[in-house]
């Protein structure tokens, strides 16, 4: 039987929970049950097996934890309830939640057992008497084989994050554990996805389960702004650094496919002086716990993780999730981006897709019924602008703190020298000198040393070419889908808005200056406030080059760009002799 929760909002008192558990729920501040709780709690209290399809953050721990506690006999000092979880972090979270729920139940003890830690404290806790055991499958089996964990009295079993448990290779361990549990027991399985392996486990270990699916997948990420950018694999690190630099999120979680990728991405971010760390299957459990605690405490701002390592991770500070490697399935995508937008906060999910992966975005949109908007990677100019805005926001507080005499003296001396060199000392001149000094100091303080120092010029050039190619491919796809009858109006609309008008400009640097096209793109976008997709074809000659820009530059922007420098040479940008011209779309690819 499948149960989909309806739109009614029952109270916890309506679910059949004992009075002491209701008191604990009220003390914890729970106002009304979530959909998974409203559907699962009554079924489990009635003794049914339950299969729940629910993402992390939907309240599933209370959905199985409260009914489990309702069945516990405090006077019996042996395990009566068993929760299996794929990771140490998730096991610890579940145990902590159960302990909170059990505060009104005298004599109920919860013990957590997991690998990567000493056996002795866990064995002592079991010997002291525990009614509920929460653990990872491997350590549960170890303790069973040592004779220190007897499951002969267990009447309630929970398989939490079932899909991940099986994906991590625990299928045989789960079978071995359940063989030691009495045949007459109740089982609840909760999973974010339902792959075939899960269905086999359900058939083998659950009896006529009540199946509960809570809300469409997209509902769990309703508060998350979803976007993607097309980025070639070789430029993902640079793109990630820019996204992180322009984000206002307190902390970010970056997802990669493999342990090797996690290490490489983490190392690259640290090299760029970004406060980042890595968790993967190779990181010892104790170290993983310390890393997550640092993230929670604000001592770490970026965490690079594989899917397995991030299971059970629940940190409210995470305001940005970056899919450095695009997940292969819609279910994995939903599970990842659900790590942000927690506790009623908003969040952002940015996905990097290679040109060959764009169709994957469409499939995920269709499966989740959510729009994922394409967005460009921030330019070097936007990175600098964001950093400078943050710097200037600190100015009032710094002025209020005082002790600026040394800085003021140095600035006064610098301006005095500048005034003597300029041979003019009127108020307007001194104001301009002070403005130039503040501008240069602001740029230097955020690492912006000018377009000639940019290291990502080639990335900007390639991103620009990809953007142009997509823009001109899109009308072709629309034409094919809409039919030939729509073609004339569509083309005329584009021309009306000047989309086909391209201006070609002459710049005074070429091969002889050892300049690459990417450097020209970097200078133009950095100084002109343009995006990479505004730059078209660049042709380079011995002593000069031509570059196509759309739309046509204003006189003010052209004047500013003419002074921009590449490799120590001014661009001297001006309209090319060819001037404005109309081009077919295919000519700009």
Explain what this protein looks like in three dimensions.
The protein is α/β, with parallel strands linked by helices and 589 residues long. It folds into 4 domains: 2-215, P-loop containing nucleotide triphosphate hydrolases (Rossmann fold, 3-Layer(aba) Sandwich), CATH 3.40.50.300; 220-378, 3-Layer(aba) Sandwich (Rossmann fold), CATH 3.40.50.300; 382-449, no CATH class; 456-481 and 499-588, RRM (RNA recognition motif) domain (Alpha-Beta Plaits, 2-Layer Sandwich). It has an 8-stranded parallel beta sheet with strand order 1-8-2-7-6-3-5-4, with helices on both faces. It has a 7-stranded parallel beta sheet with strand order 11-12-10-13-14-9-15, with helices on both faces. The protein has a 4-stranded antiparallel beta sheet with strand order 17-18-16-21. The longest helix is centred in the C-terminal third of the chain and has 26 residues, at 457-482. The relative contact order is 0.08.
Short description:
The chain is built from 23 helices and 21 strands. The strands form four sheets. It has an eight-stranded parallel sheet with strand order 1-8-2-7-6-3-5-4, sandwiched between helices. The chain has a seven-stranded parallel sheet with strand order 11-12-10-13-14-9-15, sandwiched between helices.
Spell out the blueprint of helices and strands.
Elements: E1 2-3, H1 19-27, H2 35-45, E2 50-53, H3 60-71, E3 81-84, H4 88-101, E4 110-113, H5 119-127, E5 132-135, H6 137-145, E6 156-159, H7 162-167, H8 171-179, E7 186-191, H9 196-205, E8 210-213, E9 224-230, H10 236-245, E10 251-255, H11 259-271, E11 276-279, H12 285-297, E12 302-305, H13 307-310, E13 318-323, H14 330-337, E14 347-353, H15 358-368, E15 373-374, H16 380-393, H17 395-401, H18 405-422, H19 427-445, H20 457-482, H21 487-496, E16 501-507, H22 517-528, E17 535-540, E18 545-549, H23 555-563, E19 565-566, E20 569-570, E21 574-582
Parallel strand pairs: 1-8, 2-7, 2-8, 3-5, 3-6, 4-5, 6-7, 9-14, 9-15, 10-12, 10-13, 11-12, 13-14
Antiparallel strand pairs: 16-18, 16-21, 17-18, 19-20
Helix pairs in contact: 2-3, 3-4, 6-8, 14-15, 18-19, 20-22, 22-23
């Amino acid at each position: 039987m499948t149960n989909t929760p309806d739109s009614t909002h029952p109270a916890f008192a309506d679910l059949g929970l004992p009075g002491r558990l209701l008191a604990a729920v009220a003390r914890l501040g729970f106002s009304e049950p979530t959909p998974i709780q409203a559907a699962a709690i009554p079924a489990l209290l009635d003794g049914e097996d339950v299969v729940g399809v629910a993402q992390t953050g939907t309240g599933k721990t209370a959905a199985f934890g409260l009914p489990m506690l309702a069945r516990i006999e405090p006077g019996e000092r042996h395990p009566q309830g068993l929760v299996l979880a794929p990771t140490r972090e998730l096991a610890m979270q579940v145990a902590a939640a159960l302990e909170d729920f059990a505060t009104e139940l005298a004599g109920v003890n919860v013990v957590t057992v997991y690998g990567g830690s000493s056996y002795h404290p866990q064995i002592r806790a079991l010997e002291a008497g525990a009614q509920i055991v929460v653990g990872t499958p491997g350590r549960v089996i170890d303790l069973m084989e040592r004779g220190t964990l007897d499951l002969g009295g267990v009447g309630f079993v929970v398989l939490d994050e079932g899909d991940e448990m099986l994906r991590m290779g625990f299928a045989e361990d789960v079978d071995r554990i359940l063989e030691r549990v009495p045949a007459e027991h109740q089982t609840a399985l909760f999973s974010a996805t339902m792959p075939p392996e899960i269905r086999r486990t359900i058939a083998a270990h659950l009896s006529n389960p009540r199946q509960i699916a809570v809300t469409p997948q997209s509902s769990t990420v309703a508060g998350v702004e979803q976007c993607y950018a097309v980025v070639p694999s070789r430029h993902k690190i640079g793109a990630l650094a820019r996204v992180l630099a322009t984000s206002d999120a307190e902390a970010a979680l970056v997802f990669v496919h493999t342990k090797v990728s996690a290490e490489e991405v983490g190392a690259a971010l640290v090299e760029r002086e970004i406060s980042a760390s890595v968790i993967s299957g190779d990181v010892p459990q104790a170290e993983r716990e310390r890393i997550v605690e640092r993230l929670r405490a604000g001592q770490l701002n970026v965490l690079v993780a594989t899917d397995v390592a991030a299971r059970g991770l629940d940190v409210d500070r995470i305001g940005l999730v970056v899919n450095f490697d695009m997940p292969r399935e819609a279910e994995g995508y939903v599970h990842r981006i659900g790590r942000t937008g927690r506790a009623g906060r908003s969040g952002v999910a940015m996905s990097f897709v290679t040109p060959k992966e764009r169709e994957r975005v469409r499939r995920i949109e269709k499966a989740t019924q959510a729009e994922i908007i394409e967005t460009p990677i921030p330019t070097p100019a936007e990175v600098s602008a964001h950093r400078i805005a943050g710097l200037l926001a600190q100015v009032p507080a710094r002025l209020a703190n005082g002790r600026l005499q040394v800085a003021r003296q140095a600035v006064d001396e610098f301006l005095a020298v500048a005034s003597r060199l300029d041979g003019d000392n009127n108020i307007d001149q001194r104001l301009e000198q002070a403005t130039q000094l503040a501008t240069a100091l602001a740029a230097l303080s955020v690492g912006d040393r000018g377009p000639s120092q940019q290291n990502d010029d080639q990335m900007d050039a390639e991103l620009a070419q990809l953007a142009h190619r997509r823009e001109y491919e899109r009308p072709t796809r629309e034409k094919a889908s809409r039919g030939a009858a729509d073609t004339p109006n569509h083309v005329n609309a584009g021309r009306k808005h000047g989309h086909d008008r391209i201006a070609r400009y002459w710049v005074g640097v070429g091969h002889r200056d050892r300049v690459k096209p990417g450097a020209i793109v970097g200078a133009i976008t950095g100084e002109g406030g343009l995006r990479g997709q505004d730059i078209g074809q660049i042709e380079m000659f011995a002593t000069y080059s031509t570059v196509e820009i759309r739309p046509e530059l204003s006189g003010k922007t052209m004047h500013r760009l003419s002074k921009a420098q590449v490799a120590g040479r001014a661009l001297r940008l001006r309209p090319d002799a060819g001037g404005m011209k109309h081009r077919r779309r295919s000519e700009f690819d």
